[in-house]
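Supplementary Methods. Inverse-folding protocol.

Structures were first reduced to a discrete structure-token string of length 527. This string, shown here, constituted the complete conditioning input.
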């Protein structure tokens, strides 16, 4: 298959791919199947082996038998070809909201990568058709709810299988469009799935793993952004920069925690000795910020390993070793590693929401902000009496943080016995991943509120110290802090008179999700 021209292209089938590769496809990069003889031979060997077994009347789960608990039901040979359509048809019961096109492209990429391992018994043609959906930007409309994470993401992935067969709906140019029209308009006939192909498409972990890629990237960015915002909170509250000294952290050598402390220390431009009159100890939400953010920073390498190993695995059932001529029945559709990764990630991220909320609470409170106006109001004179600054924003941040914390209950321990007790222990990985994305959204809302308040707080501190608050990029501030303040101010004016801040908050949230703010460090992976 030729590479799509005029845009970046990710190659499937030669080397391991990364989280970033999947997200590049989600964001619009094209895909190509590797021009590698061994890759093509491995894929073709699987489908040829299955064809030979069928010709010899061999028994293969999900090909010559029913699915799941129905594996004891033999399928008459003349009906074997109809079985895949029944599989995706009866799984067409997904509910809830629909994944957007970005997420749908990530799901397609994750499924293509698993099938490209060459152990699923599918035809080369099926890989080409999945690549075609991505390159033509025909993204199946996939409902979010209905998967217990084993036997894989059956219900949501049934919408991918159905679209390949010319059924259900796709996003086309941002609009919903029937697949039965979209494929012929490209000169492509709907695909009649071969006997193993319905199962191969659906009986895997592509949805949860795609969501995990998205969640990982957002969490990685928050590590850096929350580190920089901690520096702003320390500046706003006139904090002690020596809480982040390298000598202090050298005796507790968690590498991620140490990286966070170093970022904050650099942003605060701490000198060799504390200035006279500096407070001995700040409150925990400032002083212990590296210990909170650092947990996520240190967890990221492990979480990456779990996610990328799942991405680069054959994760359906049965596994077809065409070259070795083996049919291997097992449970590779089980999403336990993704479930653990997402339950762990959402816990760490919710702690960032809590941390940022607590820092915000310090900044708005005259008992703890050390000389700043109540609620960081920029009003002066008699107008100060009727202005309330960030009072309601802090209430909102507290609500978002509370909801994020509530969602940290691990989904993976809520296994349900399903499908006549055939699926009697399931991963709940997809629910864990969806929870993680919701926790990320709530945390980004808290972070946006913190960013608006912290920038205002630093400007007010400059005013208190006798400088022009408009000179936020002047000498007392590091280049990184000054850059972030300017970026926030490009989206939100200083709050001198009460105004509705929902538009400002939404603009900052959008910038966070677009990675639009300056953050420290080249990577979240400590050296």
């Amino acid at each position: 298959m030729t590479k799509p021209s005029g845009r970046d292209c990710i190659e499937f089938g030669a080397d391991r791919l990364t989280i970033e590769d999947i997200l590049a496809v989600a964001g619009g990069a094209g895909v190509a199947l590797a021009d590698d003889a061994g890759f093509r031979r491995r894929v073709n060997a699987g489908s040829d082996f299955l064809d030979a077994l069928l010709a010899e009347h061999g028994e293969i789960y999900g090909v010559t038998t029913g699915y799941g608990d129905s594996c004891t039901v033999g399928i008459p040979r003349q009906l074997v070809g109809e079985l895949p359509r029944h599989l995706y048809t009866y799984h067409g019961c997904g509910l809830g909201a629909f994944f957007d096109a970005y997420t749908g492209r990530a799901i397609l990429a994750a499924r293509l990568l698993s099938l490209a391992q060459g152990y699923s018994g599918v035809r080369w043609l099926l890989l080409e058709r999945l690549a075609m959906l991505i390159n033509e930007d025909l993204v199946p409309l996939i409902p979010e709810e209905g998967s217990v994470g084993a036997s894989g993401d059956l219900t949501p992935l049934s919408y991918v299988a159905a679209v390949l067969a010319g059924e259900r709906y796709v996003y086309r140019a941002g609009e919903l469009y029937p697949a039965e029209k979209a494929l012929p308009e490209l000169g492509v006939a709907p695909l009649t799935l071969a006997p193993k192909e319905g199962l191969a498409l659906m009986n895997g972990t592509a949805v949860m793993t795609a969501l995990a890629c998205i969640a990982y990237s957002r969490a990685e960015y928050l590590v850096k952004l929350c580190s920089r915002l901690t520096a702003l909170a320390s500046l706003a509250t006139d904090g002690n920069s020596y809480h982040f000294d390298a000598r202090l952290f050298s005796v507790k050598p968690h590498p991620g925690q140490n990286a966070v402390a170093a970022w904050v220390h650099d942003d605060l431009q701490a000198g060799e000795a504390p200035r006279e009159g500096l407070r001995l100890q700040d409150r925990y939400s400032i002083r212990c910020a590296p210990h909170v953010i650092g947990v996520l920073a240190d967890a990221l390498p492990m979480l990456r390993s779990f996610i990328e190993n799942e991405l680069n695995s054959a994760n359906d059932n049965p596994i077809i070793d065409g070259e070795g001529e083996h049919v291997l029945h097992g449970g590779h559709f089980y999403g336990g590693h993704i479930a653990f990764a997402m339950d762990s990630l959402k816990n760490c991220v919710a702690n960032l929401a809590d941390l940022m909320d607590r820092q915000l609470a310090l900044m708005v409170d005259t008992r703890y902000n050390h000389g700043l106006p109540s609620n960081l109001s920029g009003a002066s004179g008699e107008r100060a009496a009727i202005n309330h600054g960030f009072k309601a924003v802090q209430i909102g941040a507290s609500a978002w943080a509370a909801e994020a914390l509530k969602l940290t209950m691990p989904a993976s321990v809520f296994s349900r016995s399903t499908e006549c007790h055939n699926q009697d222990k399931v991963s709940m990985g997809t629910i864990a991943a969806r929870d993680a994305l919701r926790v990320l959204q709530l945390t980004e809302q808290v972070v946006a509120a913190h960013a608006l308040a912290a920038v205002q707080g630093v400007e007010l501190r400059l005013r208190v110290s006798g400088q022009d608050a408009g000179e936020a990029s002047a000498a007392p501030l590091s280049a990184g802090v000054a850059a972030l303040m300017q970026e926030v101010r490009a989206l939100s004016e200083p709050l001198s008179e009460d105004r509705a801040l929902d538009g400002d908050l939404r603009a900052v949230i959008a910038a966070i999700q677009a990675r639009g703010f300056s953050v420290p460090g080249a990577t979240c992976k400590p050296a």
